[in-house]
Design goal:
2 domains; alpha/beta; 15 strands
């Protein structure tokens, strides 16, 4: 049987209520690393991200800014889309907006299929609601009367008639879904499994239009708009043109390996709610959910727009370059757990591992090559099996650690062989070959740096410094 060489990967869609921050950059970069690696393996890759543009939080933010809500989301959607090339994200990434007509059509068709299957009903209810999370909160979710993720926001009490999704009908099916390595890392899989085992409650999937009119209209009921999560989650298939583009959907979702990156605060939405929704609509489930930890500031507090402690990734790139940020996200921030960020820590890693490390090594090797070799060393590249295995399990940090292990070994070999004294051509050729392997291995992680190293070897010239000390 012919191997299916297609791969689908998506980030969560950032919420368009403020500027991009480092947490968004982390998810974009890590998904891009996996997408680039899959392309190197010969896969046809569909890489998706976009803009989540509906919901109460958007309306409140636009009012506070004194802007029309559509102008407001247009502004921030443009900022997020423009951030992608700044981060060195693949040029052919797809950017879906939940205000796109094709997405609205998908969300409404999805609703109708779930409704026809008998999993949507209407009832009166009363609940506590966190505007920051755009989700309902049970007593077990609340600490000291507030949402722990948004402690600066008061919880709202919602009391109205809404449509509900029969989430409670999917406990057994979800538990069966979790029997394989469905969510990475394993602690997040265990968390979501225990959440489902405790029992699921049906959740609201609409809001009254007269109270919050900014959303996708509910089919057949002009008094309601869809709850933002029910609308936004369908973006993962609207981007593939479902239900109209059956060929693309079948190729990348049904027969591919749909993979979703998200933050740990999104695990419940991605790993349980969305999967139950897919089951209700009679569609295949995602293949894998990969969960990042938070980027924290001083004191271990999560960076978030609502707390005002965010870092602007554009400023970091402007000062240090895109590949420096990609390196830091890939190696210095924990792949799956929370990690602290300070600019002091960033600068230390930059100078120690990039300017003094990789950059200095490249200059030393290529200076000797340019001086003592009569021409370029021929290049033959193959991605290391260890890296293949690590990336297959989304262990990005360990993969970059492996490459830096090779950098350390090459530095040690130079010190032992002393080619600047012996001028041994064969030793210098070996150095260039090993540097070439390192350069190729860096391709999905630091594409610009990888290209510079390989180009220098092809020309047998010492390049300009890869990273200037700061």
């Amino acid at each position: 049987m012919k191997e299916n060489k297609t791969f689908y990967i998506t980030t969560t869609l950032p919420y368009m209520n403020a500027k991009p921050h480092l947490g968004h950059a982390l998810e974009f970069i890590r998904a891009d690393i996996i997408a680039r690696w899959k392309k190197m393996q010969g896969y046809e890759v569909f890489f998706n991200t976009g803009a989540d543009e509906h919901g109460q939080k958007i309306v409140l933010a636009s009012r506070e800014a004194g802007m029309d809500v559509k102008d407001y989301v247009d502004k921030y959607a443009s900022e997020f889309k423009n951030l992608l090339p700044v981060l060195g994200v693949s040029s052919n990434v797809n950017f879906i907006r939940t205000t796109d007509p094709k997405h609205i059509k998908t969300a409404q068709e999805f609703w109708q299929r779930v409704e026809r299957a008998g999993f949507i009903y209407k009832k009166n209810y009363k609940t506590k609601y966190c505007v920051g999370c755009e989700s309902e909160k049970t007593d077990s979710d609340i600490q000291e009367g507030r949402c722990p993720l948004h402690p600066n926001l008061d919880l709202e009490i919602i009391e109205e008639e809404n449509y509900f999704f029969k989430f409670s009908k999917f406990e057994e099916k979800l538990i069966s879904l979790y029997e394989n390595n469905f969510i990475i890392p394993e602690p997040r899989l265990n968390e979501i499994r225990e959440f489902v085992k405790r029992g699921l409650e049906d959740f609201s999937i609409s809001r009254l239009k007269e109270k919050m009119g900014w959303g996708v209209p509910v089919p057949g009921d002009d008094k309601h708009v869809m709850y933002v999560w029910f609308d936004a989650l369908t973006s993962y298939i609207s981007t593939l043109g479902w239900p109209d583009s059956e060929e693309i959907f079948k190729k990348f979702w049904e027969e591919g390996t749909p993979t979703q990156y998200c933050g740990k605060d999104n695990t419940r939405f991605q790993g349980a709610m969305w999967q139950a929704m897919l089951m209700a609509a009679g569609l295949p489930n995602s293949k894998r959910i990969v969960v990042n930890g938070f980027v924290t500031g001083d004191g271990g507090v999560k960076m978030s727009k609502s707390l005002g402690n965010v870092i602007d990734p554009v400023e970091l790139v402007r000062e240090y370059g895109a590949d420096a940020l990609r390196y830091f996200v890939a190696r210095e921030l924990s792949t799956f757990e929370d990690s602290p960020f300070t600019e002091e820590r960033f600068k230390k890693a930059y100078n120690g591992n990039l300017a003094n490390g990789l950059g200095n090594l490249t200059s030393r090797v290529m200076k000797m090559a340019e001086t003592h070799l009569t021409g370029p060393v021929s290049l033959e590249h193959e991605f290391h099996k260890t890296l293949e295995s690590l990336l297959e399990n989304f262990e990005i940090g360990k993969a970059v650690d492996h490459i830096w292990g090779e950098i350390k070994e090459l530095d040690a070999f130079i010190q032992e062989s002393k080619p600047w004294e012996t001028k041994d051509v064969e030793v210098i050729k070996t150095l260039v070959t090993k540097l070439s392997h390192i350069g190729y291995s860096l391709k999905p992680f630091m594409p610009e740096t990888s290209d510079k190293i390989i180009e220098a070897i092809k020309k047998n010239k010492m390049p300009e410094p890869l990273f200037l000390r700061k």
